[in-house]
Amino acid sequence: MATLKELSHQEEKFVGGHRACPGCGATIIARQVLLAAQQPVVVGCATGCLEVATTIFPYSAWNVPFIHNAFENVAATMSGVETAYRALKKKGKINKDIRFIAFGGDGGTYDIGLQSLSGMIERRHRVLYVCYNNEAYMNTGIQRSSATPRGAHTTTSPAGTVIPGKIQLRKNLTEIIIAHEPAYAAQATIGYWNDLITKVRKALDADGPSFLNIYSPCRLGWAYAPEMTVKVTKIAVETCIWPLYEYQDGKYRITVKPKEKKPITEFLKLQGRFGHLFKWRDDLPIKEFQAEVDRIWERLLKRSQAD
């Protein structure tokens, strides 16, 4: 298990000076993920908030080899890079032990990058794919994605008198990836930094493709004060809206279990994107959201106990 003293002595692979919003979850994720890496790394990043805010020409916050590609194909790009590395290593032209990390938001991962990601895992490329999940297309105007939760207000699922925000369930991408039988898969968040660091190291050490779905609050799209970012992630875990668990060798394990499972209203009330739900004509949207969270949590408990 990593310690703060150990991490403080490491060279920063992701540095300050970027243009991300105050309180941005994605940049905290990038820093923590790269601090966890104990080998040289090559990073690929899909177009999105993280790429746009950190690579404003002629500057870059990435203190590692970095590749920017299109919105939908970071998994394919890093598949090619990892394959080239293996070929060069086999020929004796490279002798370093290098790891490969792909970053993508939920838009470029849950939606338009899913085919690329699925192919990367099916072909068994040794790449860690990190989804910084801020639950909407934040970079292009806060449009809903398939990661957007039920009831959230976005510019393409606006809350009004007819609908209370997004009406569909969010996609459970972590379970879709687990169905691919990756070497390692997990959910994490920045509020539990040691859990995240541990999972990154497991993922990078895994002999095959790995996937981390990391909860990434967006203070702009979620509408909360910038200093609340870490608190929001912790409440997401305590309400089981974002369970922290891992899948490896065919087994599930819950890595952080709340001492007391709080109602989802404790999470919803912190953010403007859910404010309309407390003024809605009835409490049905909140009840449906709570039922979804309870169902997924109970299923996860059974799967982890079965193992």
Automatic annotation (TrEMBL):
Superkingdom is Bacteria
Q: Which residues form the Thiamine pyrophosphate enzyme TPP-binding domain?
A: 47-214
- List keywords of the entry alphabetically: Oxidoreductase, Pyruvate
Show the coiled coil region(s): none
Q: Which Gene Ontology terms cover its molecular function?
A: oxidoreductase activity; thiamine pyrophosphate binding
Pfam families tied to this protein: TPP_enzyme_C
Alphabetical list of InterPro entries matching this protein? PorB-like (IPR051479), THDP-binding (IPR029061), TPP_enzyme_TPP-bd (IPR011766)
Identify this protein by name: Pyruvate ferredoxin oxidoreductase
The organism of origin for this protein: candidate division WOR-3 bacterium 4484_100
